[in-house]
Design brief:
Elements (H helix, E strand, L loop, with lengths): L2 H16 L9 H4 L11 E5 L4 H8 L4 E6 L3 H9 L1 H13 L16 H21 L1 E3 L2 H7 L5 E4 L6 H10 L3 E5 L6 H14 L3 E4 L1 H4 L1 H11 L8 E6 L27 H12 L11 H5 L25 H5 L1 H4 L1 H6 L7 E6 L11 E7 L8 E7 L3
Parallel strand pairs: 1-2, 1-4, 2-3, 4-5, 5-6, 7-10
Antiparallel strand pairs: 8-9, 9-10
Helix pairs in contact: 5-6, 8-9
Length: 382
């Protein structure tokens, strides 16, 4: 329980006891072992619940999930419908005499206790919490109309993280924001100042930082297992196999095709025209709310769902998606602080979508007895 929530309950109980009406809040010992008193749970709202937000809700399913907000409820429902299959699959693994290691992570043992806790969360979310939670498309309406919210989980596209988190903190709500924390550095600084002023509980979600494997690797380095580190190479296969980058924004041709040269710009113009088409906004999608405070862009299925990561209006590309995990461990384990120099080279950048491939070089100074460090980041085809 957070200190601010505990204090607000104390004030409430004091005021209630002083009034003419009797209010009963059951303590844990009255309910019996294994039960959590209603006064010891938080009322949580989720904003952006079709992707990573759904996973966040599973992890807090021991609490009261009272409100859910998303701009595309058809996409949300499609992902929640998968819970049945996922519950059955996890149950089958738990029923095996010797469950196999985690799929896709060789050498990672199956943790039955964690799996059971996740299974319980999935079942409770599907059967109890998801059906009962009030639903919204606009987070502003949710915060304005629903007064019982204690904390807000934010897992929307990157460009809306700061706006939603700031609005929640203005109302003294605790916030948990998925990585990358914000779309730009200035927004991160604004969030830090707001958290300091409001003193609410805040956290950025970063599952890579939270996994036991990551901490084990960091502790190996802290223990000197590989000696001094002077050079680090970090790479990801995104965006190639996951979302498009280095492509032009779809738009109708501004000149007859025969008048276009066959140079780079001419080919890009032809590609933009080829991608353009009559794609009406799906009835279940509030496209204006998806755009939020960003520029007005006509809907196209190349943007939503998920592909927003590669477009500069809404995402921060592969370095925000995977760099938040992969660069975290060397920075954490080597106590790197801020770099003294950064250089980036890339394939052509059209300002609409991030380059198809990028190399970035970081120089970090010596820290005490630790030597200077060079980090090279590779993404895409390089």
């Amino acid at each position: 329980m957070t200190k601010s929530k505990e204090m607000s309950r104390r004030r409430f109980l004091t005021n209630a006891a002083a009034g003419s009406a009797a209010v009963s809040i059951l303590p844990r010992h009255v309910l019996g072992r294994g039960f959590t008193a209603p006064s010891d749970t938080l009322n949580i709202a989720g904003v952006g619940v079709g992707g990573m937000g759904r996973n966040n809700l599973i992890n807090v399913a021991s609490q009261n999930i009272v409100a859910l907000c998303d701009v595309d409820w058809a996409y949300v429902q499609k992902n929640f419908d998968r819970l049945d299959t996922e519950i059955q699959g996890l149950q089958r693994r738990l029923d095996q005499p010797e469950p196999q290691p985690v799929p896709g992570r060789p050498g990672t043992p199956f943790d039955a206790a964690k799996a059971k806790a996740r299974l319980e969360g999935m079942i409770r979310l599907k059967n109890e919490l998801y059906p009962k939670a009030k639903r919204y498309k606009d987070y502003r309406q949710m915060l304005d109309q629903q007064k019982d919210i204690d904390a807000v989980l934010v897992a929307t596209p990157d460009h809306m993280h700061a706006s939603i988190a700031l609005a929640a903190m203005d109302l003294n709500k605790h916030v948990y924001v998925q990585k990358p924390l914000t779309w730009c550095v200035d927004e991160a600084r604004r969030l830090a100042r707001k958290a300091k002023d409001t003193k609410v509980a805040t956290q950025m979600g970063n599952q890579g930082h939270s996994l036991d494997d990551g901490r084990t690797a960091v502790e190996y380095i802290w223990a000197g297992a590989i000696g001094d580190v002077r050079e680090v190479h970090v790479w990801t296969n995104r965006p190639l196999g996951f979302w498009p980058q280095g492509v032009p924004r779809p738009e109708a041709p501004k000149a007859p095709p025969e008048s276009l040269p066959w140079n780079g710009r001419g080919v890009d113009a032809r590609l933009a025209a080829a991608l353009a088409g009559n794609y009406p906004v799906p009835e279940t999608l509030a496209w204006d709310l998806f755009l939020g405070g960003g520029p007005v862009v006509e809907y196209h299925p190349i943007y939503h769902p998920f592909n927003w990561r590669g477009w500069t209006n809404w995402g921060v590309g592969a370095i925000g998606d995977m760099g938040a995990h992969l660069l975290d461990h060397p920075v954490w384990s080597l106590n790197l602080g801020l770099p003294t120099a950064i250089e980036t080279i890339s394939t052509p950048f059209n300002s609409a979508s991030y380059p198809h491939a990028t190399l970035t070089f970081y120089d970090f100074p010596a820290r005490g007895k630790m030597p200077p460090v060079k980090i090279t980041w590779y993404e895409g085809g390089l």
